[in-house]
Design goal:
Strand order of the largest sheet: 1-2
Radius of gyration: 24 Å
Structural class: mainly alpha
Number of helices: 20
Largest sheet: 2 strands, antiparallel
Distance between the termini: 34 Å
Number of strands: 2
Helix content: over 70%
Oligomer: single chain
């Protein structure tokens, strides 16, 4: 299947199927082969890849970036916002944890809305809420307006619920079976890049100055920049973002479209997922890994300042290193999955390396050498955040043909729950014992997640569906080749 220059309206009334055969399309848009038999039509369905798919996933990745940037923009300069708003460190920690808290109760109605209304409605709501949240923050750049800035952050956290679980859904709806994992990795890439910018930019835009008027001006500038970007992205989604391609990209998606809408029950889908033992194990292991990442990210400023006082900018750079390394890991893992389809083996290996990375980071943090922290944090990030698209794609494989948004939503719900628990517990352990004890606390749960991952049965349902459909297509092609000469001789 190639990127032949065919418009979304199929102006040349043709497209290419998975086996590269060119088939005419009638003007009504229904794929049809004038030589195909009824049996052939029942067994195989038409597929096509549109160039627009790259625009859709990149636009999604961009507004995901804008939203995830705001998740960490308070936490990475925790001490500065504490001083500006005159609140405690734990209160500023909640500016990150609120992203996790709002996700838990809202993910179920949002995934229901996704199944009922589709990707475009979800994208519009996400970008509208994100845009509104950024402008609320613009109005909060005064020391006495902490409740306003918290309201803005809550609004953005609600927008996140409409974003976080979408990469696998967009990848499945728009991309072919040989590139779906790469597309999912690109979707996750935007979220990770936003976190990276959230680590890097706030310490640069908001220096630790004593004059409150000057500090307010720096904070206001940061908020204005974010609001401008969010507004542009909202406008682009209105005019550019498309619900789904006219012709599905894979046999699995083509089959999914044939399921009558009235036969679908959201609650039945949820119950079916919760009866899937392999998926339940993945929910737990995914939550443990990503929850640890959330805790490390939220408390990173405290960790670095503890051993390296006055290094707020370097704390942001270390966070940037974690996420940039994770972005590289995500893309490598996505490409590897598309080529190898070794979902279980890759997921387990990356989980083991996340545990090793966390152990090394924990025991080297206090050595007094920032370059060592950069190195160990980058290694940790490569595997820990590189795990994100692996979890999404493995879940889709284990749960096909259930909605990708629902399976991803349950994974993220688990991550938010563990993220809140780990952030609060690690913070208390750091206060009561030591930084090393807090990090070893996370290591213990990463070890538990590694063991759980080893027991997940690799049941790749989506791959099986595509293989069965392609086998049927090949068989039908051979049957047609044998029948055609006979028909010609008779007529």
């Amino acid at each position: 299947m190639g990127d032949k220059s065919v418009s979304d309206k199929d102006v040349d009334d043709q497209y290419y199927t998975d086996d590269h055969s060119k088939i005419p399309i009638p003007n009504d848009g229904e794929a049809h082969n004038e030589h195909s038999s009824p049996l052939q039509s029942e067994k195989t369905m038409s597929t096509h890849l549109y160039k627009r798919r790259w625009l859709v996933v990149c636009l999604f990745s961009s507004y995901s970036l804008c939203n995830s940037y705001q998740w960490i923009q308070y936490g990475i300069i925790n001490n500065i916002f504490m001083k500006f708003y005159d609140v405690s460190s734990f209160t500023i920690d909640w500016m990150s944890m609120i992203y996790m808290l709002t996700y838990i109760p809202l993910i179920f109605p949002v995934t229901w809305l996704l199944d009922k209304k589709g990707l475009r409605v979800i994208a519009l709501v996400a970008t509208a809420l994100n845009c509104a949240g950024t402008w609320i923050k613009v109005a909060s750049a005064r020391p006495d307006l902490f409740p306003v800035t918290f309201l803005g952050q809550v609004t953005c956290s609600v927008a996140q619920v409409f974003i976080l679980g979408m990469p696998s859904r967009i990848a499945s709806v728009w991309f072919g079976s040989k590139e779906v994992s790469t597309a999912c990795a690109i979707g996750v890439f935007g979220n990770q890049l936003g976190i990276a910018i959230g680590f890097l930019v706030p310490p640069i835009l908001v220096p630790n100055v004593e004059d409150m008027d000057e500090l307010a001006n720096h904070i206001r500038i940061m908020f204005y920049i974010t609001a401008g970007v969010a507004t542009v992205l909202f406008i682009l989604v209105i005019f550019v973002f498309q619900e789904k391609p006219d012709i599905p990209p894979t046999q699995a998606q083509a089959a999914a479209r044939l399921i009558p809408a009235e036969s679908y029950s959201y609650m039945t889908s949820i119950l079916c997922l919760l009866r899937n033992r392999a998926f339940i194990l993945l929910i737990i292991s995914y939550g443990l890994n990503v929850g640890c990442f959330y805790a490390v990210s939220t408390l990173l400023n405290r960790m670095i300042i503890e051993y390296y006082p006055g290094e707020e900018v370097n704390a942001g750079r270390i966070g940037l290193t974690i996420v940039i390394a994770g972005m590289v890991g995500s893309l490598i893992c996505g490409i590897w999955l598309d080529r190898s389809k070794t979902y279980k083996q890759t997921t387990f290996l990356v989980y083991v390396m996340s545990l090793v990375g966390m152990l090394v980071y924990a025991f080297t943090l206090n050595l007094g050498h920032l370059w060592v922290v950069f190195l160990t944090a980058g290694t940790l990030g490569f595997f820990m955040t590189g795990y994100l698209p692996l979890g999404f794609e493995f879940a889709v494989e284990l749960t096909y043909p259930e909605s990708e948004g629902t399976s991803s939503g349950l994974l993220n719900c688990s991550a938010q729950v563990f993220g809140i628990i780990f952030t609060i517990c690690q913070g208390k352990i750091i206060d009561s014992f030591s930084m090393l004890a807090g990090n070893l606390f996370l290591c213990a749960f990463l070890f538990l997640g590694t063991v759980i991952t080893a027991f997940i049965k690799s049941d790749l349902r989506r791959q099986k569906a595509n293989q069965i459909a392609n086998t049927a297509a090949a068989a039908n092609h051979q049957d047609y080749g044998a029948v055609a000469p006979i028909m010609s001789s008779r007529f």
